[in-house]
Automatic annotation (TrEMBL):
InterPro entries: Ribosomal_Su5_D2-typ_SF (IPR020568), Ribosomal_uS9 (IPR000754), Ribosomal_uS9_bac/plastid (IPR023035), Ribosomal_uS9_CS (IPR020574), Ribsml_uS5_D2-typ_fold_subgr (IPR014721). Keywords: Plastid, Ribonucleoprotein, Ribosomal protein. The keyword Plastid applies. Gene3D superfamilies: 3.30.230.10. GO terms for cellular component: cytoplasm; small ribosomal subunit. Belongs to the universal ribosomal protein uS9 family. It comes from Delesseria sanguinea. GO terms for biological process: translation. One of its GO terms (molecular function) is RNA binding. This is Ribosomal protein S9.
Length: 136
C-alpha cells in the first residue's frame, strides 16, 4: 500500500509479534529511523542487537540509506517491537518492488512469528509448571 503526501511517496507495512504491533512508513530519504517520535537508537536503548534486527530487511537488500523509517509501535516489550518493526519494514519493501519478495522470503523475513505467551491455568503456577507433588 502506498500513499502520496507532501510530494513524497510513502510505503506502508504492518508487523506483529507477541503482543506488539508496529505500523511502518517508508519514505525516500537518508536512512533515519524514528520510532514513536524518538530516534530509533534511543527508543531501542542503544542496543545494537535490536537495531540490527529492526533494520535487517534494508541491510539484506542494500537499501540502508535510501529510506527514512517512521514507526508507530505499541504493546509488548522491546524484543516483540523490534521483530514487529522488522516484519513491517519487510512488507513495505515488498510493496515498493515485488522483486524484493523472493529475497526477503528466502531469508525468512516475511513470515509472522505466531508464538504468543500461553495463558496460566488454575491450579498451576504458570502455564504448565505445577506445584511440587507431595505423596503424603
Amino acid at each position: 500500500m502506498s500513499n502520496i503526501s507532501n510530494n513524497h511517496i510513502t510505503y506502508l507495512g504492518t508487523g506483529r509479534r507477541k503482543t506488539s504491533i508496529a505500523r511502518v512508513r517508508l519514505v525516500p530519504g537518508s536512512g533515519k529511523l524514528i520510532i514513536n517520535g524518538l530516534p530509533g537508537e534511543s527508543y531501542l536503548q542503544f542496543s545494537p542487537n535490536y537495531l540490527r534486527i529492526s533494520c535487517s530487511p534494508l541491510t539484506i537488500l542494500g537499501l540502508n540509506k535510501e529510506y527514512d523509517i517512521y514507526v508507530k509501535t505499541e504493546g509488548g516489550g522491546l524484543t516483540g517491537q523490534a521483530d514487529a518493526i522488522r516484519l513491517g519494514i519487510a512488507r513495505a519493501l515488498c510493496t515498493i518492488n515485488p522483486d524484493n519478495r523472493t529475497t526477503l522470503k528466502s531469508e525468512g523475513l516475511l513470515s509472522r512469528d505466531s508464538r504468543v505467551k500461553e495463558r496460566k491455568k488454575y491450579g498451576l503456577r504458570k502455564a504448565r509448571k505445577a506445584p511440587q507433588y507431595s505423596k503424603r
